[in-house]
Each structure stands twice: as structure tokens, then as C-alpha cells.
TrEMBL record:
Cofactor binding comment, as recorded: Probably binds two magnesium or manganese ions per subunit.
Annotated family: Belongs to the DNA repair enzymes AP/ExoA family.
Name the record gives this protein: Exodeoxyribonuclease-3
UniProt site (Important for catalytic activity): D218
Membrane spanning stretches: none
Coiled coil region boundaries: none
Species in which this protein is naturally found: Sphingomonas rubra
Binding site for Mg(2+): N7, E34, D147, N149, D247, H248
Length: 256
């Protein structure tokens, strides 16, 4: 079973690229982030024509997450993270597909810092950890897949110096991510590529793609029952180089 996380950076603008990916990549479950589309404008017909069912949590012009499954519609479990009722940003969607719990998440960027956006990022990460703990207590195979906006290690970026002041690489962001791992979740891509140097994002600016100046912020975390089934993990980097592509590449894990 191949589970993918893919920040599409605007699903209406990238629908042709997404359909290409669904047609070519042989993915069973695809978690999307940064839809930048309302619920009403989600392009379900094109996704269904590619052979996938979908559940989505949209937001006009910003955020938005979805879970797609080949040949079926995922069963929704949770829409939005508990813990902050006034939070209306569409950043978390949890579904079940064939006994596997899959969450698509789009963690706040947190820039500029210090300030309210960074504070919100850290609060959101604590709410995510609370939900992750609840999933661990269920003892089910689960995958927390998405754009975490966290560069977890120095070797997860082309340049520590270039990113040192960014919210993605602050000690508080890293510590919150590591608390997730310490509670029992497995970073699947890191497990398969322990020496780093694997990027999932390349900025549109400053020729980042041509220079391979990227970093890793898209992660698929596995609960212990899912980690026991880990076969491989990687990045479908080639799709980042296509015309009008997202600035993220699809990132995946394969489970037995």
C-alpha cells in the first residue's frame, strides 16, 4: 500500500499535474494540502475520473486538506483539531481507509517570528500531539501525513545558514516535532534515509529547483502498528520539475 502526502499549492491551478500523478504513480491513498479552494469548488469530477474517491476540508484562497483513496471514498473520522474552538483554519482531516487511519495535515508556517503566527504554530503542534496520543491509545495502524513546515534536522536542508532564522527551523518547532517522535511515532522517510539530504520542497525563488536548494518539510509519521508494516519511503522528485508544478514533490511511504 502506497500512501502519499502532496502539498499541491492550489488544487485548481495544479489539477492537471495532480491528475497526472494519480494516473502515473500507482498510489493507494493520497493526502493533499494547501488546496486553496472552498468546499464548493473542490474539483471532485476530475479526481473521480482518475479513479479516486475523496473527502476534503476546504477554505477559500487558503489552507485546505483532503484525503483521496483509489477506488473508494475514505470514511471521515475527524475534521479539524480539537483544543481551540475559535480556530477556523482548515488544516486537519482524519479518515479511515481499509482499516488504516490516515490524517492529512497542513501545519502552520509560523513566519514571521516572534509573533502571533509563531505562537499559533506552537499551539497547533501541541494540539496535534494530543490528537496523536489519542490515536496511539487506539493501537491502530495510523499515518500522520502532511506538510509539517518543520525542518527537523540540520541535514534536512540545503543550507542551515539560509534557514537559521526561519520559523521552520527554530528550536521550539524542532522540539515539538521530536516530542511527537518520542511519544511513539516513526518518521518513515528518516528511517529509510537516515543520513538526510532528501528534499521535499524547492522554493520558486532564486533558482532553488535548478540548484537543488531544497529542504524536507513533508513527513509521514507512523504509529507502531503501521511502522511494523514499513517497506520503503521516498520522494517522487521528478514531478517537481514538470511545467507549472507545485513547489513540493509528492512524498510517500509503502506499507505491507
Amino acid at each position: 500500500m502506497k500512501i502519499v502526502t502532496y502539498n499541491v499549492n492550489g488544487i485548481k491551478a495544479r489539477i492537471d499535474r495532480l491528475v497526472e500523478y494519480l494516473t502515473e504513480a500507482d498510489a493507494d491513498i493520497v493526502c493533499l494540502q494547501e488546496l486553496k479552494a472552498s468546499d464548493e469548488t473542490f474539483p471532485l469530477p476530475a479526481i473521480e475520473a482518475a479513479g479516486y474517491g475523496a473527502v476534503w476540508h476546504g477554505q477559500k484562497a487558503w489552507n485546505g486538506v483532503a484525503v483521496l483513496a483509489r477506488g473508494k471514498t475514505p470514511v471521515e473520522r475527524l475534521r479539524g483539531l480539537p483544543g481551540e474552538p475559535e480556530d477556523e483554519q482548515s488544516r486537519y482531516l482524519e479518515c479511515e481507509v481499509d482499516g488504516l487511519v490516515v490524517a492529512s495535515l497542513y501545519l502552520p508556517n509560523g513566519n514571521p517570528r516572534p509573533g502571533p503566527k509563531f505562537d499559533y504554530k506552537l499551539r497547533w503542534m501541541e494540539r496535534l500531539r494530543a490528537r496523536a496520543d489519542a490515536l496511539l491509545a487506539e493501537e491502530v495502524p495510523a499515518v500522520l501525513a502532511g506538510d509539517y513546515n518543520v525542518i527537523a534536522n540540520d541535514d534536512d536542508t540545503f543550507s542551515v545558514r539560509a534557514m537559521q532564522d526561519d520559523a521552520l527551523m527554530q528550536p521550539e518547532s524542532r522540539a515539538a516535532y521530536r516530542r511527537l517522535l518520542a511519544s511513539g511515532w516513526t518518521d518513515s522517510l528518516r528511517t529509510r534515509h537516515p543520513t538526510g539530504g532528501v528534499w521535499t520542497f524547492w522554493d520558486y525563488q532564486a533558482g532553488a529547483w535548478a540548484r537543488d536548494a531544497g529542504f524536507r518539510i513533508d513527513h509521514l509519521l507512523l504509529s507502531p502498528p503501521a511502522a511494523d508494516r514499513l517497506v520503503d519511503a521516498g520522494v517522487d522528485k521528478e514531478f517537481r520539475g514538470r511545467e507549472k508544478a507545485s513547489d513540493h514533490a509528492p512524498t510517500w511511504v509503502s506499507l505491507r
